[in-house]
Amino acid sequence: MYGKLRRRGCMFYFLLIAAVLFLFQLSLYAEVNEKGDESTPARLITLAVEYPGIEITQGQNINMNIIFHNRGKQDENVQVWLSRVPKGWNAQIKTYQYNIRAVNVPASKDKSLNFEAKPPEKIKPGSYLFRIEAKTDDGKFTMAQNITVHVKAAQQVKQEKKGVKLNTSYPVLEGPVKGKYEFSIDVQSELDNDAVFDLIAHGPEGWDIRFKPAYESKYISSLQLKAGQSSKISVEVNPVSTAVPGEYPIGIRAQTGKVIGETSLKVVLTGSYKLKVGTTSGLLSLDARPGKPANVSLYVKNTGTAANNNITFMSYKPENWKIEFKPDKIDTLKPGELKQVEVTIKPYDEALVGDYSVNLEAKGEKDTNDSKEFRVTVKASSAWGWIGIAIIIVVIGGLVVLFRFVGRR
Description:
By secondary structure, the protein is of the alpha+beta class. The protein contains three helices and 27 strands.
């Protein structure tokens, strides 16, 4: 009995010490967090360019990121513009789709824009200065960054050290928003030594772009090549689900030290094609009589992201039945648009009483289609009903006359 009490006492002291240590660690964690929150300024935003100084050859375009770092506790709206552009150059700040004049940078986040510049056709070798300026809406933060571009003559480049080349036979792929696109690129090293090349992709915001060895499923971020060796890689591109139809450029780069090879790819999104057929009531059955038309209303809806044109209708019906669509064709349906179609179903004059299956289908562009199967119940003609009633009346009348005649006798 004494031993049990002693063990329980030891266990109680052990749990008490553990609880004290836990509360001590918790207080330290809260203190660190509190200090961390205090160290974060209310507002702080900075501007940086990816490459403040670059060297290009005559005729080569410039493409790099402009990065805003928001280290404050609140979102910031920042105006941004090019205050200096060399004469004859075509320069702009943009995203994958729009030219940008202002950008929203969430608190504690980074936001990237794209700086593009195209030199004039007959540009002379030399140094050219660009200046990017930015400020918050209230003017409290003003920022500026210079980009110095050194342009070299084409003949001078030919005499320089060999580098790396990126080549692709199919730089433009086209398809729907929800498609997956895979480019094949040949990476050719012209160096006199072995090297590891970092693989970098610049594409639309939110897109998933990854590199793979050719004919393999694993993903890579670098590629090792021996002197003079070439290797094929695949670039897998998955557009963001909210992308709209349009053209989207993607920049690909292989880099080791100061040796850089670049190529441009493009994905052209044409939108997805989908149709939906149904009834407003949801019912897929109706009654009909032999040789008599029965009507049903269908709706056709474009549930894709691209306009669907030349929508036609087909039916699969019992032999000798007649089916008509009004209208018999829809010229175009915009994304999300819905139109109603009236369908007349006329059973064969000698159709037997019973249930029949009729399939109605709408067919549009890119082999898009949808159909609905209806159960048509053929009932006896109403004329037979009146004939039956007349026969009953005649029979009843005959019986009445017969009873009276018998009663008199």
